[in-house]
Specification:
Largest sheet: none
């Protein structure tokens, strides 16, 4: 239940914060997959590391959790309309599974975080 609420909050926050007129995330229309993918990556840029999601700072941890959930939801939306975003969707679904199972430490968690960051960097070009 918390993940659903967090994902919904992430979408709303992402739309409000990053939908400026010069942003790729400002696209309109239900099927604007590029805007959803851009919003996902903009939220993801604010998740410094998976092990920080369950860190000592409760406010920061909650923000990172919500950003990761919002990014995953937006990436899934993008992939539903455009298969070019399937890899980003799958990588962020892996992140979601890791957060749900508290599997956020170690080399595999770092690699999962880096994979999403790399996919997002590829969308900039």
């Amino acid at each position: 239940m918390a993940a659903v609420v967090a994902a919904g909050a992430g979408i709303g926050v992402g739309w409000l914060l990053w939908s400026g007129p010069d942003s790729a995330a400002s696209g309109t229309g239900l099927d604007n997959a590029a805007a959803d993918a851009a919003g996902a990556c903009q939220a993801w840029e604010r998740v410094p590391a998976l092990d920080k999601v369950f860190g000592d700072d409760d406010k920061a941890s909650e923000a990172y959790y919500n950003r990761a959930g919002g990014a995953a939801t937006l990436a899934h939306s993008a992939a539903r309309f455009d298969r070019r975003y399937d890899a980003l969707d799958k990588a962020l679904q892996d992140i979601t599974r890791r957060l749900q199972t508290f599997d956020v430490k170690g080399a595999k968690a770092v690699a999962a975080h880096d994979k999403v960051s790399t996919l997002c960097a590829g969308l900039d070009g």
